[in-house]
């Protein structure tokens, strides 16, 4: 997504980075553009010169979070499971570090196609390296993504997962032992 540039005039007090950093410290479930402008000490109309609306703001936040969670190394046929484990723990740490982010991502909505597309492509690639067909790699991505995001979202929203709810490490271990998805009976 191309960042907007401010109109000519006074030197900018805003930047994409300042806006995103401010948003990363707000509860993303409830934050408004007016809240962000107030925290930045600018008018909300000045903020709109940089970010068109709340959805665009959340897209920018998604780009930063996905950049933070993607491991620098690519998965291989020998490392796909540890790679996915590392990715899931990065998701755990980053999604829960941003107030309301895991809860936001867990709700049905339009995700940032570019950022989440990069995440999806890397995870699908890992499952293909594990021997999954194209279709089963896509199915495995869905199971992995939904499983991790829903667990994190429920935790962040304060839903009681019950007294016997598994710790994230146990949940992740069981999830990854069942992936990549396989055709029934195979």
TrEMBL record:
The entry's keywords: DNA-binding, Transcription, Transcription regulation
Family annotation (InterPro entries): Homeodomain-like_sf (IPR009057), HTH-type_TetR-like_transc_reg (IPR050109), HTH_TetR (IPR001647), Tet_transcr_reg_TetR-rel_C_sf (IPR036271)
Keyword Transcription regulation: yes
Pfam families: TetR_N (PF00440)
Domain of life: Bacteria
Domain HTH tetR-type: 30-59
SUPFAM superfamilies, per database record: Homeodomain-like, Tetracyclin repressor-like, C-terminal domain
UniProt signal peptide: none
UniProt name for this protein: TetR/AcrR family transcriptional regulator
Organism: Nocardiopsis endophytica
């Amino acid at each position: 997504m191309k960042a907007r540039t401010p109109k000519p005039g006074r030197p900018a007090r805003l930047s994409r980075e300042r806006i995103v950093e401010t948003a990363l410290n707000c509860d993303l479930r409830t934050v408004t553009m007016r809240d962000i402008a107030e925290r930045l000490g600018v008018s909300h109309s000045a903020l709109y010169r940089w970010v068109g609306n709340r959805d665009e703001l959340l897209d920018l936040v998604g780009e930063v979070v996905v950049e933070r969670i993607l491991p620098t190394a690519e998965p291989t046929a020998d490392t796909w499971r540890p790679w996915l484990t590392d990715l899931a723990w990065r998701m755990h740490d980053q999604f829960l570090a941003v107030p309301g982010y895991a809860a936001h991502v867990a709700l049905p909505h339009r995700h940032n196609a570019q950022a989440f597309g990069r995440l999806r492509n890397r995870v699908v690639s890992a499952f293909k390296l594990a021997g999954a067909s194209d279709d089963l790699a896509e199915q495995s991505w869905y199971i992995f993504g939904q499983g991790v995001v829903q667990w994190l979202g429920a935790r962040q929203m304060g839903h009681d997962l019950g007294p016997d709810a598994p710790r994230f490490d146990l949940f992740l271990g069981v999830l990854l032992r069942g992936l990549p998805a396989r055709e029934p009976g195979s």
